[in-house]
Amino acid sequence: MFSLHRKSIVMKKYFLILLSIILLFSCSKKSAIDQQLNNKVDSVLGLMTLDEKIGQMVLYASDGDITGSSIKSGLLDEIRKGNCGNILNAYTTAHTRKLQKIAVEESRLKIPLLFGYDVIHGFKTIFPISLGESCSWDLEAIEKGARIAAIESAASGVNWTFAPMVDISVEPRWGRVSEGAGEDPFLGSKIAAARVRGFQGKENDLADSLTILACVKHFAAYGAPQAGRDYNTVDMSQRVFLDTYLPPYKAAIDAGAMSIMTSFNELDGVPSTGNKYLLTDLLRGEMGFKGLVVTDYTSINEMVNHGVAENDAEAGLLAVKAGVDMDMQGEVYFKYLKKQVKDGLVDEKLIDEAVRRVLRVKFLLGLFDDPYKYCNEDQEKRLVFAPEHLETAFEVAKKSLVLLKNENQVLPLKKGDKIAVIGALAASKRDLLGSWKAYGDTMNMNSFLDEFKIYNGNTNVIYAEGCKKMGENISGFGAAIAAGRRADKIVMVIGEDAEWSGEAASRTSLQVPGVQTELLEKLKTLNKPIVVVLMNGRPLDLTRENQFADAILETWYAGTMGGKAITQVLFGEYNPSGKLTMTFPRNLGQVPIFYYQKNTGRPSYLSNPKYKSRYIDCPNDPLFPFGFGLSYTNFEYSEITLSATELVEKGELTAKVTVKNSGKYDGEEVVQLYVRDLVGSITRPVKELKGFEKVLLKAGNSKEITFKITPDMLAFHRLDMSFGTEQGDYKLYIGGNSRDVKQTSFKLK
Ligand code: BGC
């Protein structure tokens, strides 16, 4: 016994020594590689004139898509002269090869170009919009989506994507919520990291010709514009910023993202593009970011409008001193930086640092070894829009749909039922692609209506447009009602035009536009089961639709394969498993509404309803809470069993719950873990998501789900702004959404 014990101690010791040797070896190997890379970078830097250095610090739009004014003329000549080292919105091997050829064959130093593009949810094979994809809570699926987007763009000449967009938002008026992962920092961080792994590859091997450089955006807190108006002022406490808005940027950087984009907004009075605290102290200092910082489109120039610089030149000084390496489209560095260095206003060392960071990513991408590695025509033909990519887009699309209501089991539909399909969106291909559709087009894809007819048989589908997405025209109502009369069931597709979300698409109403809901109300009088299929890019106020519809399926903009995915879910070929990642309010007046709110001193549940934190004309709770989504089956949760009721420093608790599929269909459930810190040195949210697991359960089967809780999961910025935990009582909740949960308690010692 004794010698066995001794033996195991000795073995442990050897193991530890071996481990330290391996670690030491791999660290020194890593620093040797870093050193080699630095030497390479410096060997190029040493050859560069000041003009050529500044040329690496600019990024100009090619003649592709633009999101602001295109102000650069004579682009090819600038590449030739070494004045332009980076291009955005150029794609296809033919186009990028032409530009790259000028850079590496006609410029003095032959430095290859970076090609950036907004590959947000697919390149040509379009996946669901990012908000929709986030509702899958399926990190593997999300990573695959980004992987395929990277493969297709890399095969088409692009080596840099302006994604992932990781801005937390509780502001449905803001159109750009469609590009993010919703309201929650914990889930948002997991998704941010998954997307970076997808773009840059699991091993973060940028040299692989099918990985591309990720760009985390928009740094920082762009998702909290006042009144939901795009580009508007952001003002929040430092604590809220650090605990709620910062984590996804950090997660993306920790996952290896090598570039980051500044945001358009100001934060505490300082525009991000000139914000030294954000870009240098926090990002490079505390967060240890080693990659390059690029501005958003002309955001240096916009600091003049913000009112922190008198002119572009002054704005450029703010940016370069704050830590901006690359000026997107603004021509400020190009026009003023050289003179500012000569006049002693900017230290050339600052320029050298910025250029080093740009050259470094070009080396990491392997562009110095082979500048045409992303211009392989055969690969482009084979990989862009490949059948297996479409198959994955179909799988991911199914997972992103959220069933919000299903009264009397109207869904799934039965094959062969006579069904009236109503609504302009039903027949639209363009809308399925959502905003930021990159190179996606409507060729070679089907609308929802096409797919619905293929599945259910042409003769069993009666289509009537009824009305447009917008406008007041009701002349089509008669035909739609006639169609409804002839059918057993009605499927009405309503929502927003795809361009109503995304950039510069803020709204002051969250209602379904035009007369779509009016028509729904009319159809309701036919007394036939009505299924509403929603296409939209933000949480909407669905209070009226909820009155008229028996079932509601939220489909976002589900991508190239969206029509087929929606059809299959409606007919029960796939059991919906998506869960909301943003709260759906009852009306706009409740906004901002999110599940991690504070309790307040007068919570509404206390007796005497008058002087409470409540509305007099509407309940406090949302129509559909965060984490909510139905299935065609039912899931039952057991009570929670905790391994102990006390958690000590460096200790661990396990929380177990048994989930049973008690319905008739196999199905997936997202089991969610929340905690609440009951008393703190500052007030704490009523719930915070701390874990989740998506499980597939066959009908009748059960599974025990285990969550580990460690003290670090409970850390926050305390009263004195230090980051850490506080002892005391906690509640722990597990359930299928943020509202309907089982609960227990524990103490942090
Ligand atoms: C957007 C960015 C985008 C950039 C380049 C800007 O207007 O805010 O998200 O990456 O344009 O297209």
Secondary structure blueprint with pairings:
Blueprint: H1 2-45, H2 50-56, E1 58-61, H3 75-80, E2 86-88, H4 93-106, E3 114-117, H5 130-134, H6 139-154, E4 160-161, H7 185-200, E5 213-219, H8 238-245, H9 247-254, E6 259-262, E7 266-267, E8 270-271, H10 276-286, E9 292-294, H11 302-306, H12 312-322, E10 327-328, H13 332-342, H14 348-364, H15 377-383, H16 387-400, E11 402-406, E12 419-422, H17 448-456, E13 461-464, H18 477-486, E14 489-495, H19 516-524, E15 530-535, H20 543-548, E16 551-554, H21 562-570, E17 635-637, E18 641-642, E19 646-647, E20 653-661, E21 667-677, E22 688-697, E23 702-709, E24 716-717, E25 723-724, E26 728-735, E27 741-748
Helix pairs in contact: 1-14, 2-13, 2-14, 6-7, 6-16, 7-9, 10-12, 12-13, 16-21, 17-21
Account of the protein in words:
By secondary structure, the chain is an alpha/beta fold. Among the domains are: 399-590, Rossmann fold, CATH 3.40.50; 635-748, Sandwich (Immunoglobulin-like). Helices cover 32% and strands 17% of the residues. The strands form 6 sheets. An 8-stranded parallel sheet has the order 9-6-5-4-3-2-1-10. It has a 6-stranded mixed sheet with strand order 11-16-15-14-12-13, sandwiched between helices. The radius of gyration is 27 Å and the shape is globular. The two termini are 36 Å apart. The relative contact order is 0.10. Residues 66-71 have low confidence and may be disordered. Residues 67-68, 88, 118, 162, 217, 296-297, 503 line the site of beta-D-glucopyranose.
